[in-house]
Amino acid sequence: MVGIISYGAYIPIYRMSRELLAQVWGGTTGRGEKAVANFDEDTITMAVEACIDALGSMERQADGLYFASNTPPYREKQCASIIAAGLDFPVDGEFFTADFTNSLRAGTSALKAGTEAVKSGTAKRVVIATADCRLPAPNSGSEPLFGDGAAAIILGDTDVAVEIDGTYTIYSEFMDGWRKEKDTYLLTWEDRFIIEEGYEKHLPRAIKGLMTKHKLAKEDFSKFVLYAPDARRHAAMVKILGLDPKKIQEPLFDSVGHTGCALAPMMLIAALEEAKPGDKILLANYSDGADAFSLSVTENIEKMKDRRGIKRHLDSKLKLSNYGKYLLFRDLMVWEAERRPPDISSLASLWRERNQFLRFHGGKCRSCGTIQHPIQRVCAVCRTKDDYEEVRLSDKQGTVFSFAMDERAMVKDLPSISCVIDLEGGGRYVGVLTDREPGKVSVGMRVEMTLRNLHDGSGIHNYCWKPRPIRV
Amino acid sequence: MAESIKDKVAIVGMGCTQFGERWDVGIEDLVIEAAYEAYEDAGIGSNDIQAAWIGTMYNTTAAGTLASPLKLGSKPCTRVENACGTGQEALRNACYALIAKAFDLVLVIGAEKMKDVGFGGLATGPTTSGTEAWRPVYFYGVSAPTRYALAATSYFAKYSLTPEEGKKLLAKISVKSHHYGARNPKAHLRREITEEQVIKAPMISWPLGLFDCCGVTDGASAAILCRTEDAKNFRDDYVVFKGFGAASGPGMGKVLTDYDFTWWDETEGAVRQAYEQAGIKDPRKEIDLVELHDCFSIAELIATESLLLCEQGKYKEQMSDMDAYYLEGEMPVNISGGLKSFGHPIGASGCRETYENYKQIQGRAQEPSRQKKKWKTDQRLALAHNQGGHPGKFACNVTIIGLP
Fold first, then answer.
1. Which residues span the domain enclosing A373?
2. How many CB pairs below 8 A link A and B?
3. pTM of the model
4. A408 closest CB neighbour out of B123, B204, B257
5. Which residues of A touch B141 (CB under 8 A)?
6. How do residues B198-236 score in pLDDT, each as one tens digit?
7. Residue B385 among the catalytic residues
8. Domain count for chain A
9. Which residue, among B76, B38, B32, B28, has the nearest Cα to B351 in the 3D structure?
């Protein structure tokens, strides 16, 4: 049996209401709110978050990791390998990493490729991570629509919670949205054309193909997870397909927004959160063709209930009530020149110290057992030299021992709150608190670790772990 | 067998520039200004100098910073660096050379040009990282005020002070510093401030506001040293070194969870060395003057405790009468105005503090109202203290001088 053995999701803590956008630009107010990545987040860090949610307490062992995004932080340089290292997957054995991009179908493409890999026996466990952080043009139709988010699906052949028992894929050269090399924002054609000839033609074709191929009828399914470009088209598709509205997965537009290639996988996870053993789910995604999946939920789904997933991430939020701050987060203006020198970095240094900063390992002294970060070659307690084992600290929670709130730091979200963190099980870390409300930080506050991009010095995304108040 | 340096080396002349934002002078001018005042004070000319030490952190062109502007000829010149303790480190190394009888008369300068960078605050980053190995991500974005603010938060928590109570306590320290800075013609910040001003000042790094932080300043200070037996050739009121302490911590405050940021281990380590050399048993009863490292108000509070001048955690109780730390109080601290009023040109501060102590001991303080009149002992012991790095990872220097 091949299928989903675990799943997870990630929604950034900040939400922007559509009312705010109407206040900024005028015009009518849309419904609800959308998720907006913090200034230190990108699709790599969001994918890591979703994978951590999916991995839970599982061993960090797999045969591959596929990353799907239309907004990878590097255009030339694989991102899946950075995610795999951030998650601390072993680097010494066989492990297949790949990036899937350039389509809103990239997430389901990776899901299909991973399914085929497990089915063929070349891999026993594959991690699918998908995230998008698409930048809408300010004051455009995309701005209220686009949201940021991530999903992770772990595929395997044992203890399967959701069997993938059928797939069907078509391709099409149909163009509806695109960005060329130097385009900052999405380009599209007249929406009536791209909806009528694109979305509304291709998605039903793939669904019909799936049903014919696997001898299924719509009555066989208890839930339909249907991609749509927006809420109105989602409702229209339900009618086109003649489906029972009670069987339709809610499409997240009012709470998260359109999260690009992560949207369909995030909707699937929202559906799985409600699923019972025996449920049959149809997943259909569109762009450059269409994918359809037939999924059967097993009794193992009951073991997935501790995931933060969609629901608990939705409940954990901070209001981004200031459009100026959003402009800062996304670097959307030409700013006053900074008089202080720019950030710089060193690839050699980052590489040399990758285990303690990207993988967030501490050293545990074999002689006295003290955990120390950064790794100390000579133990700070017993002075034993070069006799330590590396231990992962990224999955440890901690407590704020002391903190300061810097109002003059060169960061996009003042104050910059530096914290001394004492980690459970041992180890101390000094880092900048993220996803926080300054007035609520206190000595003794509980925190967890999250991978973030600290700065872009020397043209590099400089990833390291930050503490943040525990999300849920 | 190691011996105490007590009474072996004398200061026979000192100089100190005006401290401030010296837009019109460079590092060379600062060095000349300090050195020539010291020459004049010692009654010598530059030809009499046999060797020289310069303490500077940012102006790293080694002895060129000193030899070139002063035209010392082809003589041994050495640059030393120990972060904020740099000036004292230069004095300490020069003393050892004199005790070794390698030279008879030497020049020591601590100098720093800080204000050419074009922005407020301290320069940071890989080229100016001082005592710390620079890393692209670790400790990224943790500024100097933030590093000390972490200590303030921790101190408040440990001793059950609300942030309001803590800030009020720290404000008293800054008010005292400005009181004396206003009375010191060479200080950078020369106006009195009130507690209310300190508390209401713009926040720099909570809980530390603008008036909890010292200035960023240009300055230099110089000393002429010889062995004590030769001092009478230069002046009768020479001052001698009683003890040095230096301690570089392993930086475990960021690594080990038992470090709580409210006690400076390195300061305690360094001052115990100096007290032992000077034969000081009860510092609060024997030390007359203390110029300590008050880059931030919280630094003065914790250093006062760590220098063993009051009991650990008792600063608030023993300071309930702030007069104790004023000029004629039980334990005068930073009556020059401190780093708070002088600013902190990194390499200069250690020499500048010793300059203040030297002048006080001789009865020649700038501005007579600041001259100390009553002394605990005939030795007139005065202590200078600097610590570089940050809470959890310090390099500390202590220098005690007095009458022979």
1. 347-469
2. 132
3. 0.95
4. B204
5. 406, 409-411, 416, 418, 432, 454-455
6. 999 999 999 999 999 999 999 999 999 999 999 999 999
7. no
8. 2
9. B38
